[in-house]
Amino acid sequence: MRRISGSKLLADNERGMVLVVSLLVMAVLAVLGTAAVMTTTTDLKITSNYTQNKKAFYNADAGVERVIAYLRANTVNYPTGNTPTTISVSCPTGFNFNTSVNLNYVSSNTYKFQMTGTGANNVSKTIETHIRKVPLYPQEADGAVAMYGGGPEVAFKTGGGGGYAIDGHDYPVPADPNCNGSSCDTTATALPAKPGLFTVMTPTLSGNDTAHLGGVPTQTLGASRETEFNNFVDMVLASSSNATPLYQSTLGTRANPAVTVIPNGTTLNATANGAGIIIVDDGGSLQINGNFCFEGLVILRGSGRVFGTGTANIFGSLVTIGHLSKLIDLTGSINLFYSSAALANLANIDELSQIQRTAWRVVL
């Protein structure tokens, strides 16, 4: 029988252990390598997804800016109820966002829309943005007629017929913006009324004010807003040096209200319908001949005046500023009716509104 020495047996055992240990080390290294590859792959995927999510977000934000720029530069029929207004914009090369969004009404002068941007692998982000139209013109009306300068005087119609000449009850605008004569007449609603005549000092009244002055109250005294209106007029006139002034020499329409300026030494013969803001500057005249219906705000500065022998309804508010004495002669057939609807339409003079982003959030 062959005998195996102890030293050889020990050597064989050691070689066996080395093999086992080597196999274990290789297995551990394989596991670690696989884990490292999986971790690296996962990190790459996470990084890629993060990059694409950020890209989608920035695309959505670029789309939001595109819509806001469009609203600032174009005439838009802003929604007033549950029916949205669709806004379409172009998408520049290198960007990827919706080219059409729905502008929804939130509250007075506040609106919202959602814009979706996309990245690779169908990654998308949607941003809901709230905007507000901030008017540059004076807000609210203190009455159907507000005389902020000194020496206010009104000559009313004489006799019992003819209805109101100045009325602070809220009148709707005519159903037909191109109405003529008596078809332009409307009936005051039950909405809260304004004063018929607002002045900063006791006015001088002549004629039949009992029959031809209405409102709640019919007349009242209050603080002057002359500086506010005067600054607005100055801003509008200063825009004459702009490539696109804020005003024009013709009347706007209900669909496209505008600012009309009648400067010193000129007369606008009003024989048609219009809407927006009329500024009759010192020395200018608005002459009413025939039938005339205007919806919005009329500002008489200094000696600027409204006169004529025609038949006219002015829905909105008439304001006088910059005078030491002022006579409004309503002995003819000119009616000055407060109208919240006519004044609300001034918000559609896009040149006189600033679009501001007030809030945003990621919804998807």
What does it look like?
The chain starts with 5 loop residues before the first helix and ends with a strand. It has 364 residues and is of the alpha/beta class. It has 4 helices and 21 strands. Strands 5, 7, 8, 10, 11, 12, 14, 16, 18 and 20 form a 10-stranded parallel β-sheet that branches. Strands 1-2-3-4-21 form a 5-stranded antiparallel β-sheet. Strands 9-6-19 form a 3-stranded parallel β-sheet, with no helix packed on it. The longest helix is centred in the first third of the chain and has 68 residues, at 6-73.
What descriptors fit this protein?
364 residues, five-stranded antiparallel beta sheet, 4 helices
Task: Explain the layout of strands and helices.
Elements: H1 6-73, E1 85-88, E2 100-107, E3 110-118, E4 124-135, E5 145-147, E6 152-155, E7 166-167, E8 197-199, E9 204-206, H2 209-212, E10 213-214, E11 219-221, H3 226-238, E12 258-262, E13 267-270, E14 273-280, E15 285-288, E16 291-301, E17 305-308, E18 311-321, E19 326-329, E20 333-338, H4 340-344, E21 353-362
Parallel strand pairs: 5-8, 5-18, 6-9, 6-19, 7-10, 7-20, 8-11, 12-14, 13-15, 14-16, 15-17, 16-18, 18-20
Antiparallel strand pairs: 1-2, 2-3, 3-4, 4-21
Rounded to an integer, what's the Rg over CA atoms? 36 Å
Number of strands: 21
Helix content class: 10-25%
N/C terminus separation: 85 Å
Tally the helices: what do you get?
A: 4
Structural class: alpha/beta
List the helices and strands in order: HEEEEEEEEEHEEHEEEEEEEEEHE
Shape: rod-shaped
Global mean pLDDT: 87
| Major sheet | 10 strands, parallel
Give the strand content: 25-35%
Segments where pLDDT lies below 50 for 5+ residues? none
